[in-house]
Design a protein that fits this description.
By secondary structure, the protein is of the alpha+beta class. The protein is built from eleven helices and 13 strands. GO terms for molecular function: acyltransferase activity.
């Protein structure tokens, strides 16, 4: 077993990385070029670590190298070891509800604990004496048990919301499974939005008509209004990242504009053969946009429509607002976080 560290800002992609992504059925945010764009704009830049046996990749880890808030606001230059305190988060920043560590199909579950310990030892050598420990975010119960042990801390995290595809042929099949109040509300909003002459709705993959800077500004304003999540080490998505992101054929972008072209709301969704995933949502306050009440719920209707068309197994809606999502038929999927302080790394 050997481990390779790749800084997507400056290093070439691992050998056979596209094949690994295909075989492990990874979401679009694991694209190496896209990770590089994300890392250049991130205060806590992302590393890609791969584990290989012979010529085969058997595992991959997305690792955020995080620094205290008092550190400079920009990322350190590539390749620099840290003498100052840092910690590592095994985390895929723009894939809520999924772990930052993935394994090749068929890699034995019984071998994952040993691989993880070996990864921690190599990470300590790579990042230097300033490494305080490793935090594994958004992991499942089975892996939490494998990564646990003496001196390590395992905690239940906020669950992610998942809608199972009950062989929906259209969004109407899904709406029919919901409580009467929700059914009537969704249909009423869908009708009003369709009949609003001042609202222009467009959705689809590979949107070359969407300005990344415009989307980034709306997302930033939306998140500033609602406040930053606790213990969130991610950097706001940059205009450059979003510009590249929405042009991908496996990313669907839904936009709501007025007739003058002003962006009122936006939603992005990751296409995937098994699990579609809702990602960025942002909207102007209703009193600023002046129309389009219920756009958030309309975005779910359109996402389920795509789920039915694609025939995927499920639609993931990430974390937060769990009660509202349960009213829409989404069920909570348990997630855990595991912390390994420096004294027990690799043990």
């Amino acid at each position: 077993m050997r481990f390779e560290f790749h800084d997507p800002r400056v290093d070439p992609a691992p050998a056979r990385w596209p094949e690994f992504c295909r075989d492990a059925r990874l979401h679009p945010v694991w694209d190496y070029e896209l990770m590089g764009v994300e890392a250049w704009g991130a205060r806590n830049p992302q590393l890609l670590v791969v584990a290989a046996e012979g010529d085969a990749l058997v595992a991959a880890m997305s690792v955020l190298v995080c620094r205290p808030r008092l550190a400079p606001r920009f990322a350190p230059r590539p390749g620099r070891r840290s003498l100052r305190p840092v910690w590592a988060e095994v985390y895929q920043p723009w894939l809520s509800g999924y772990p930052g560590i993935v394994f090749a199909p068929g890699f034995p579950a019984a071998d994952r604990a040993a691989l993880t310990r070996a990864f921690e030892r190599q990470l300590g050598r790579r990042l230097g004496p300033g490494l305080l420990g490793v935090l594994y975010r958004a992991i499942g119960e089975d892996f939490a048990e494998q990564v646990g042990g003496r001196g390590r801390v395992i905690r239940r995290a906020e669950p992610t919301a998942v809608l199972e595809n009950l062989r929906f042929e259209s969004e109407e099949d899904w709406i029919g499974t919901l409580p009467a109040r929700r059914r009537s509300g969704l249909r009423r909003r869908r009708r009003r939005i369709a009949e609003d002459p001042g609202l222009v709705v467009r959705g689809g993959p590979g949107r070359d008509d969407v300005d990344g800077a415009e989307v980034a500004a709306l997302i930033r304003a939306h998140r500033d209004r609602y406040g930053k999540l606790k213990l969130d080490t991610r950097t706001m998505p940059s205009a450059g990242f979003l510009h590249r992101f929405v042009r991908r054929p496996d990313v669907h972008t839904l936009t709501y504009r007025d007739t003058e072209g002003r962006l009122l709301a936006v939603n992005t969704l990751l296409d995937h053969p098994d699990s579609l995933s809702l990602q960025h949502w942002a909207a102007l306050p209703l009193d600023e946009r002046g129309r389009g009440a219920g756009l958030y719920f309309d975005s779910y209707v359109r996402a389920v429509r795509l789920l039915a068309q694609r025939g995927a197994k499920e639609l993931s809606a990430g974390r937060g607002m769990s009660e509202l999502k349960q009213e829409l038929g989404f069920q909570p999927r348990p997630l855990y976080a595991a912390a390994a302080p420096r004294p027990v790394l690799g043990r």
